[in-house]
Amino acid sequence: MPYVKMYCTATCPYCVMAEKLLANKGITHIEKIRVDLEPAQMQEMMRITGRRTVPQIYIGERHIGGFDDLSALDAGGELEPLLLA
Q1: Whole-number Å distance between alpha carbons of 85 and 78
Q2: Of the four listed, 17, 42, 51, 81, which is most buried by Cβ atoms within 10 Å?
Q3: DSSP string spanning the chain?
Q4: What's the CA gap between 77 and 33, in Å, rounded?
Q5: Residues 6+ apart with CB under 8 A from 13
Q6: What are 26-66's pLDDT values in tens digits?
Q7: Are 30 and 4 in contact (CB under 8 A)?
Q8: What is the value of pTM for the model shown?
């Protein structure tokens, strides 16, 4: 299984949906970086992704984007190959 990292907050429904989608694909561990608890991490997330919204998801070294991006990859059949790499 690849390394999965997600910048998130405790109250973000899209973060929860992303986690559920990944769990349904067999991902049992996600490194969650809580930007609501660590403001410096929010600045780092914006610097490396160029985005201000959560979730921001990485699979391995690849920046996937947010929940809509993750869901689109799944719908297009492109998510599973990333998770099997």
Answers
A1: 12
A2: 42
A3: ---EEEEE-TT-HHHHHHHHHHHHTT----EEEETTT-HHHHHHHHHHHS--SS-EEEETTEEEESHHHHHHHHHTT-HHHHHH-
A4: 27
A5: none
A6: 999 999 999 999 999 999 999 999 999 999 999 999 999 99
A7: yes
A8: 0.94
Maximal C-alpha separation, the chain: 35
38: left (phi over 0), alpha (psi -120 to 50) or beta: beta
Would you state the pLDDT for residue 85?
A: 76
Rg of the chain taking only CA atoms, in angstroms = 12
Write down the residue that tokens 């809580």 correspond to.
Answer: 34
> Residue 42 has which token pair?
């929010």
- What average pLDDT does this structure show over 59-76? 97
Residue 73's nearest CA partner among 85, 62, 82, 84 is: 82
Tell the CATH topology of 4-84: Glutaredoxin (3.40.30)
pLDDT at 18: 98
